[in-house]
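Q: Joint fold for the lines below.
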Amino acid sequence: MDFGPHLLLAAIEGAVTAAVLALMAAGLSLVFGVMRVVNVAHGEFYMLGAVLAWVVASTLGAHPALGFVAALAIAPLIVGAVAAAADMTVLKRLDYDPERTIVATIGLLYILQQLTLMGYGPEARPVAPPFNQRLALPWVEWGDGGVQLYWPWGLSVTTYKLFVIGAAGAVLAGLWALMTRTRIGLVMRATQLDGEMALAFGIPVERVYAGVFGLGAALAALAGVLIVPIQQAHYLMGGDALLLSFIVVIIGGLGSLAGTVIAAILIGMSDGIISVFFSPTLAKIIATLLVAFVLVFRPQGLMGKPPR
Amino acid sequence: MTDIKTGPANPSRRTAIKTLAGAGAAAASLPLWARYTHAQTAEPIRIGFQMHATGIGSAYGRWYDRTTQAAARLINEAGGINGRPVEIITEDDGTDPKRGAEVVEKFANQHKCDIAYGTLFSHVVIGSAPRAGELKLPYFVVSEGHHVASGMLNRWTVQPGITDVKSQVKSMAPFVAENLGKKVTMIFPDYAFGHDHRDFFSEAIAEQGGEVIAKLAIPPSETSFTKYFAKIPRETEVIYHVMVGPAVLTFVKEMGEFFGPSRPQIFGFIDSLEAVDLASPGLEFLEGTYFWEGMPRYAQPDQTEFDKHYREAIGIDENGASVNDPKDVSTYAHMFGCWETLYVIKAGMEAAGYAGPQDRQKLIEAVEAMTEWPESNEHPQGPKLFNGKTHQVFGPQYISVVENSRLKVVQTAAMETGFYPDEVDYTTQSF
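A: Joint structure:
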C-alpha cells in the first residue's frame, strides 16, 4: 500500500483506539481526582461493561440495533451500581487509605474476573453492531490530468468505527459539561479540593464518593459496550486496557479531564501509526518511555496542577 | 494508623476449640484414609491432569477436561487399568509456565500421582517438562507443539495423542499450492507457536514450488488488526493465518472489512476458531475459506462409528457443540488428543505390568515400543503411527471449507504426507 493511504488507515485505527481509551481513562482520572483512590479494578469494570453488553443483547435477542441500544443504557447503570456498592461496602470501611484501597481494588479485580469466568465462561463472544457499513475511502494522486481521486485496495473504514469516535467525543463533552456547568459537578469539585471543608459545608461527602466511584466505573463500562462490537467480550480483556489507561492518566495528569483526552489521543494515534510503520513493540516502548519522561520532568502530568 | 485490631494473632477461644476439634476428627479417622498405603492393588491409578482452567487457555481447558472425564469414565466402566480404577486429579495451571512446573511438582509429591498428563499450550509444556524430568514423572502432553519431536525436552515427556505442528503444516502445503495459489502471505502470532508455522510452512511450500512473499508477525496481546493488513502485498494469492486467542474474531472481522468484495484465497488453522460458533456475527466473511482441522467438528456424511461413539460419550452434538447448550462449542480439532492419550496410557500400563511409581520407567519404555494404533473407539480421529524415538505420534489431517457456516471436509491428508526425518532419539538418553 502507498504511503498516503497507509497513513490514513493507521490514523483512523489510532483514532478508534484513542476514543475508547479516552473514555476509560477519564473514568480512572475522575476517581483519582475526587477520591484520591487508585482504582486497579478499573479494567474489570470495562470488561464487565462488555460482558453485560453481550448478556443484554443475547437475552433480548431482538434486532441487533435494539439489543445494542439497550446494552448501552443498561450495562453502565449496572456496573455503576456494582461499583457504588463496592465503594460503600469496602473502600469506605478502609477510610480511603491510599495503600489499603490499592490492595482492596486488586482484590476486587480478581473477584470480578473470576466471577465472570465462572458465570460467563472463558470464550470471547461478539455482539452484533447496530450498523456496520464498509466505506471505501478515496485517495488523491497527481496523474496526467492533474489531481485525481482513486480508491486504493483495502483503504476503508466502517460506519460503526466512525460512530465510536463520535460517541466517545459526545460523552466526554457531556462529562465536561457535568463537571463544570452543573451542581453535581460543583459538589464533586468541592469535594476534590478539600473533603473536610466540603463536609463542614454540608456536602454529603460519602455519597459523593460512592457516586463518583460509580460514575468512573460506568464510563469504563460504556467504553466496554462501545468496543464490544469491534472486539469481543472476554474475561481477561481488562488487563491491557487498564495498563493503557494508567499510561494515559499519568501522561495527561491525574485528575485532569483535558489532559486525559490529549494523552489518549497522543497514545492512541502513536500506537496506531508507529506500529504500522515500525513495529508494535516500538510503539509500546515509546509509550512507556514517555511515561518515564513525564514522571521525571513533569510529575503532575501534561495538564495536571502541581500539588499545593 | 494507630488503631489496633485483633486478628489471627489473637485467636478467640472459640476458633482455637474449632481447630482442635478438626484435628481430632482427622486423627481419629486416620486409619480410614491411610488404609490403601499397603494394599496397592486396590488403590486407584492417579493421573494428574494439568488443566488450563484459567488464563488464555481456559476455553481449551474446559473441553480437555470434559474429554478426559468421559474417557476416564469409560475406562473405569470397562474395568480400569490392570484391574485398578483410574482417578483423575485436576490442578489448574492458569495457562502459565511457572505454575505449570509447580503443578507437576504437586502431582509428584503431594498427590502421589503415577503420571502427569494433559497440557496443551506449548509454553506451559516447555516450562513444566524439565521439572517432570527431574522428578522422573512420566509426562504425557497433548500440545501439538513440535518441542517434543525436536528433541528439546526429555525422555519422560511423550506426545502420543496428537500430531505435531511441523507434520500438520507439512501435509497442508500440497493442498495450498495445488488448489489455492503459490504466492502466500502468512499472518501468525509473534511467539514460538507462530514461528513454528512460519518456519515449517515456508519450507514446505517451497518444496511444492510456492513462495511465502510476506510474513506478518502480530504481537500476542494485539486487539486491532487493520493496520497490519495494509502490509499484505498486492500480488498475494493466498493468506495463511494461524491467529489464536480471544481477539481472533476481531481479526477475521477486520480482515473481511479490509478486503471488502475482493479477497484472495484464505487458508487458516482452526486453532483460531476453536470453541467459537462459526455462525457468530462477523464470521460471514469466512464463507468459502479453508481450514485445517485435526478432527472434523461437524459430523460428516461418512462419519465413522468411532466418531459417533466418541461424540456420544462426551456429550457433543453433530455440530461439535455441547448437547446441553448448542452455543457451547467444543475444541473438537484438538481434544481427541486427550482421549487417545488416555488410551495409550492404558495400553502402556498394561504392557508394562504397571503396579506403582516404581514402574514409571517401564511405562515409558513400553510406550516407546509401541508403533501402530488402528482407527477404533480408542483412536476415533484416525489410524496412528507412533515414533518411539521422537516420542511423537502421526495421524491423518483434514482440510475443510466453510459452507453455510459449517465446515465440510474437502480433503483428508494421509499421515505419510506429514512425515519428516527424525531430529532426536530419546531412547538413547538415560532415565
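Q: Anything notable?
A: The longest helix of chain B spans residues 332-352. The domain at 45-163+334-395 of chain B is CATH 3.40.50.2300 (Rossmann fold).
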